[in-house]
Automatic annotation (TrEMBL), chain A:
Domain ABC transmembrane type-1 residue range list: 94-311
Membrane-crossing segments per the record: 12-31, 100-121, 142-161, 173-198, 242-269, 289-314
Protein name: Peptide/nickel transport system permease protein
Ranges in a coiled coil: none
Gene Ontology CC: plasma membrane
Membrane as UniProt keyword: yes
Taxonomic source organism: Chelatococcus caeni
Localisation: Cell membrane
Protein family: Belongs to the binding-protein-dependent transport system permease family.
Protein's GO biological process: transmembrane transport
Automatic annotation (TrEMBL), chain B:
Keywords: ATP-binding, Cell membrane, Membrane, Nucleotide-binding, Transport
Chief place of localization: membrane
Organism field: Chelatococcus sambhunathii
All copies of domain ABC transporter, residue ranges: 6-256
Matching SUPFAM superfamilies: P-loop containing nucleoside triphosphate hydrolases
Topology in membrane: Peripheral membrane protein
Gene3D superfamilies linked: P-loop containing nucleotide triphosphate hydrolases
GO molecular function, one term: ATP binding
Family stated for the protein in its record: Belongs to the ABC transporter superfamily.
Family matches, as CDD domains: ABC_NikE_OppD_transporters (cd03257)
Protein name: Oligopeptide/dipeptide ABC transporter, ATP-binding protein, C-terminal domain
Any matching Pfam family: oligo_HPY
Cell compartment(s), UniProt: Cell inner membrane
Length: 325, 327
């Protein structure tokens, strides 16, 4: 178990190093941030001053060496634009995105699994067909369009929820969260729903496919032959078996929801890290981009590790010690 | 003889498929008495497993019990609601299945699966249920049952899993146990052990056994009576010794002939020509006629049931035994 975790962390460090190098060089190759940062009227001297201040006058290997040295000491550099440590910048925005992604995950699970179960148990019913048709829409309509339609319907036409922003936040263990205030909650619902729709469709399909497969198994027949109630058969015997693929996929999807909530955050002007990333790419703010992607890798590694641990908890046949790779 | 515990009368089970309505079980009747073992024999697709599931009320759509009655201690199960059936299942009538690798839920511990079976029918504490589960495991010959309770199914061998399934099925000392080829997937030595254990346990609790199998040697060793099924009908029924020694129906005769025998070493093995007919295209008369060496023009009409002495019955116009006066 411990060996397994250590090995996983070792792999993660390697991925992290390779990724950071690639991104560092790629952003360097894309263009010169000084041209974007400096005012159009700036003369050659001012441009050189900026270049020197940012350390961009040195050769690439020196810049990279400095970056690695600082990174090993926990410093991922200062943003060119905000002149703040890149990590602080990201961590300040992270709670908003985490809150958004987790809310979306909760919505996807608590609506998706029951709907998928229903569609799997009654595949021929009107309800079953409607759920599957709806999930196809959730899959195929572009995310930004779904977001715009949500705004149009619930903000513009019905006026139930605000169209953008984060709303009032309240401190919870030193972290500002918005789900504790009514105003924050009303700001949270639409973007979370937007982010959840695709995942919900995915959960519905996974759950339905799993349910239909598991229902045909002998152990379900045997469970019914024991005289168990329908709710026990479905709630324990079926659900525990279909959770295995659902947890795997959702783990991966949670990572992608946090890292790439870009579209939703843009549509709803939600102040999360997705929007920060888009802005930073636009301004070639290299330290922020690199720090962001490094953080993303770390997050994916942690989430995958947690998924594996949950996986072992639901499926007794998985033994982590024996996992090879 | 006393009243039978289980009496199936003219059971018809239909499945709605693309080809139309298929009759998987067509007018099956049989009785089983307390402590008796009935062997239900037939090839794949003969309707024996469907008959077993129908007795438990476990036929799922698109299948349904179209007509007939299933009397458990005189009460007709086909007229019961799902909730009433649920209370009977596992308590009064239980079932075990063919593949021990798949009958236990792979993600639940054995104790969970046993305790839930007890508490589905009796209001007992978790602890009391657990003690009973442990005793039940010990009774089917599982060593160190206390430790095995907290194991998962994949930690057991096939034979051990089937023992666990049998222990679960017999937890409530049911009146009837339907066993759907429970030893087919096991080694012969394990098979023999399990057969004798089930026989003994069933005799102890007075449980009537309906033993579904395609293996005549199992029937010969275990059953009191045997019913041979072909294409959804019982074609021959009687005491095991009578049927196996002097089969009346050519199909039964063919089945017996197909058992590889020690006495005919070197000769080609006997077989029944052709294969089981598809339910979608059953011949109008006797379903076995196309494969039958004795078939003639008469067999184009469906044969009725002929009863002879010694509680024997068969459906054939040209039986292999002389028809006695009782006909």
């Amino acid at each position: 178990m411990l060996v397994y975790v250590i090995r996983r962390l070792g792999q993660a460090a390697l991925v992290l190093a390779v990724m950071a190098t690639l991104v560092f060089i790629a952003v360097y190759a894309v263009g010169d941030p000084v041209a974007i940062l400096a005012s159009p009227q700036a003369d050659q001297q001012e441009l050189e001053a900026i270049t020197q201040r940012l350390g961009l006058d040195r050769p690439l290997y020196e810049q990279y060496g400095l970056f690695v040295w600082n990174a090993l000491h926990g410093d991922l550099g200062r943003s060119f634009v905000y002149n703040e440590p890149a990590l602080t910048l990201i961590l300040n925005r992270l709670p908003a995105t985490l809150e958004l992604a987790l809310t979306a995950l909760v919505i996807a699970v608590f609506i998706g699994i029951p709907l998928g179960l229903y569609a799997g148990l009654k595949p021929q019913s009107l309800g079953g067909h409607s759920i599957m048709a709806g999930s196809i829409l959730g899959f195929s309509l572009p995310n930004f369009w779904q977001g715009l339609m949500l705004v149009l319907l619930f903000s513009v036409m019905l006026g139930w929820f605000p169209a953008g922003g984060r709303g009032t936040t309240r401190e919870l263990l030193g972290v500002p969260v918005s789900f504790l205030t009514l105003d924050g909650l009303s700001h949270l619902i639409l973007p979370a729903l937007n982010l959840a729709l695709y995942k919900m469709a995915l959960v519905i399909r996974l759950t339905r496919a799993g349910t239909r497969e598991v229902m045909l198994q002998d152990y379900i027949r045997f469970a019914r032959a024991k005289g168990l109630s329908q709710s026990r058969v479905i709630g324990v015997h079926v659900l525990k078996n279909i959770l295995i693929p659902v947890v795997t996929v959702l783990g991966l999807e949670l990572g992608s929801m946090i890292a790439f909530a870009v579209v939703t955050e843009t549509v709803f002007a939600y102040p999360g890290i997705g929007k920060l990333l888009i802005d930073s790419i636009g301004r070639l703010d290299r330290p922020v981009i690199v720090a962001y992607l490094m953080l993303t890798v770390v997050m994916f590694v942690i989430i995958n590790l947690i998924v594996d641990l949950i996986y072992a908890a639901i499926d007794p046949r998985v033994r982590l010690e024996e996992a090879k790779a | 003889m006393s009243e039978p515990v289980l009496s199936v009368r003219d059971l018809v089970v239909e499945f709605t498929a693309r080809e139309g309505v298929l009759t998987a079980v067509n007018g099956v009747s049989f009785d089983v008495h307390a402590g008796e073992v009935l062997g239900l024999v037939g090839e794949s697709g003969s309707g024996k497993s469907v008959t077993g599931l129908a007795v438990l009320g476990l036929i799922d759509p698109p299948g349904r019990i179209a007509s007939g009655a299933i009397l458990l201690n005189g009460e007709d199960l086909t007229k019961k609601s799902e909730a009433e059936l649920r209370r009977l299942r596992g308590r009064n009538i239980a079932m075990i299945f063919q593949d021990p690798m798949t009958t236990l839920n792979p993600v639940l511990r054995v104790d969970t699966q046993m305790i839930e079976a007890i508490r589905a029918h009796e209001k007992v504490s978790e602890r009391a249920a657990r003690d009973r589960a442990r005793d039940a495991l010990a009774k089917v010959g599982i060593p160190s049952p206390e430790e095995r309770l907290v194991s998962y199914p994949h930690q057991f061998s096939g034979g051990m899993r089937q023992r666990v399934a049998i222990a679960i099925a017999l937890l409530h000392r049911p009146a009837v146990l339907v066993a759907d080829e429970p030893t087919t997937a096991l080694d012969v030595t394990i098979q023999a052990q399990i057969l004798s254990e089930v026989q003994q346990l069933a005799a102890e609790s007075g449980t009537a056994l309906v033993w579904i199998t395609h293996d005549l040697s199992v029937v010969a060793g275990l059953a009191d009576r045997v019913a041979v099924m072909y294409a959804g009908r019982i074609v021959e029924e009687g005491r095991v010794a009578d049927v196996l020694e002097r089969p009346a129906h050519p199909y039964t005769n063919g089945l017996i002939g197909s058992v590889p025998s020690r006495n005919r070493r070197g000769e080609p093995l006997a077989q029944i020509p052709g294969m089981t007919p598809s339910l979608a295209s059953l011949p109008p008369g006797c379903a076995f006629a196309p494969r039958c060496p004795r078939a003639d023009a008469v067999c184009k009409a469906p044969p009725g049931v002929t009863h002879t002495g010694g509680a024997r019955a068969f459906r054939c116009f040209h039986p292999l035994i002389p028809v006695e006066a009782a006909a």
